Amino acid sequence: MGSGVRVALVHDWLTGMRGGERCLEVFAEVFPEADLFTLLHVPGSVTPVIERRRITTSFIQRVPAAATRYRQYLPLFPAAIARFDLRGYDLVLSSSHCVAKGVRVPPGALHVCYCYTPMRYVWDLYDDYFGPRSGSGPLTRAVMPGVAAALRRWDRRTSAGVHHFVAISDYVAARIRRCYDREADVFHPPVDVARFDLADESPGDFYLVVSALAPYKRIDLAIAAAGRLGRRLLVVGSGPEERRLRALAGPGVEFLGWRSDADVASLYRRCRAVLFPGVEDFGIVPLEAMAAGRPVIALAAGGALETVVDLSREDEAPTGVLFEDQTAEALAEAMLKLEAAAGRFSPKALRARAEAFDRPRFKERMAAYLEARLAARERC
Question: Do 229 and 200 fall into the same domain?
Answer without folding.
Answer: yes
